[in-house]
């Protein structure tokens, strides 16, 4: 059918507005303060050398270093004496020494030594002054920092997918030239996998992702889940994308799952945080995960993490990016800060709508003085998560297979929800047994 052409370039207004409450993340902004209540990755361990390194996170320039005793420090950039930059400091046995007049600071910013001054004066300055510093910890090749008020420092959460025996975790970073929220949103948008990563240029992940299937969304106490439930011949494939508040994400395998073979409780192929650098730049700090329950070791190549992160390599020519766009092209193309108020959201954006609504509420709650919740408040550490793939051999329902996909998808999700309080192998065995019994129930 031909439709009548109707040009409205002049009347459709192009200039919109961003979601200011959520996109602003500097110190003092509602969302910036909220994000500062959680441990955030700020660097890769192998980026920290014998000299200090300037980093930027949540709009704040800081200096990261490792002293000669192996302790990490994250300090304000400017020295409290006469404002020299600590990036030119010297890492010593017990802290960092400013290059200008040699003041020595501990990893917590306390002054250890003020050389060349009368003892009395030095002691007084030590008591009254310090270098601003944040707690830091290293975990599996990533450096994490807590940038909030020290009295509210949370337990460091360990997610179950990071503690699976025999897996290889490869730390990586992916830098995006745009606001954090538009990078993060993609995880709660499972349908984009069928288009951006499959139908629009080439199959960037495994074959089979081009099939849309049914979409299921779940909002839980501390997390949001978006699942694709697809029919692949005699199998049903449930692939779960996940966001744990505030900015931690997981998904299923990028390459190993394609719906053609049974998988019982496969787990994520990447675990990542989308961290604001400032309002116009963000970084995904992450691990690509290889092993039996994630992507196979053969994908553990120098390019593997970038391909898992966004479907294509990050650093490519404009011609390549136009012909084979990945997530970076999709989200950076929105502009440095997207105009969310000009969007036209549809049912497949449900996960994004739920997440933004909750984030607004949590930011406002914090402004009213309520300390935000953490996963470890209600769940045992290691914390149960959901990103992953399950593929069950279940025949087609000839009358209404769409309904069957939804039914199986929900059963697969509830098999995991019901085992949430269990930890380690007990959870794995319980979930796998339930998945096998679902399969048996529907097997002719
Ligand atoms: S400016 Fe750092 S010691 Fe003087
Ligand atoms: Fe993507």
Topology:
Layout: H1 20-23, H2 30-35, E1 39-44, E2 53-57, E3 60-66, E4 72-76, E5 90-92, E6 95-97, E7 104-105, E8 111-113, H3 119-128, E9 133-134, E10 136-139, E11 142-146, E12 168-176, H4 180-185, H5 192-199, E13 214-219, E14 223-232, E15 235-244, E16 248-250, E17 263-267, E18 270-278, E19 281-290, H6 304-310, H7 318-323, H8 327-332, H9 350-367, H10 375-378, E20 388-393, H11 401-417, H12 424-442
Antiparallel strand pairs: 1-11, 2-3, 3-4, 4-9, 5-6, 6-7, 7-8, 10-11, 12-19, 13-14, 14-15, 15-16, 15-20, 16-18, 17-20, 18-19
Helix pairs in contact: 11-12
The chain binds FE2/S2 (inorganic) cluster (FES) and fe (ii) ion (FE2).
FE2/S2 (inorganic) cluster binds at residues 79, 81-82, 84, 98, 100-101, 103.
What does this structure look like?
It is a single chain. The protein is α+β, with helices and mostly antiparallel strands and 444 residues long. It folds into 2 domains: 36-152, 3-layer Sandwich (Rieske Iron-sulfur Protein), CATH 2.102.10; 160-442, Naphthalene 1,2-dioxygenase Alpha Subunit, Chain A, domain 1. Helix 11 runs antiparallel to helix 12 (424-442). Strands 12, 13, 14, 15, 16, 17, 18, 19 and 20 form a 9-stranded antiparallel β-sheet that branches. The chain has a 4-stranded antiparallel β-sheet with strand order 2-3-4-9, with no helix packed on it. It contains 12 helices and 20 strands. The mean pLDDT is 96. Bound molecules: FE2/S2 (inorganic) cluster and fe (ii) ion. FE2/S2 (inorganic) cluster (FES) is lined by residues 79, 81-82, 84, 98, 100-101, 103.
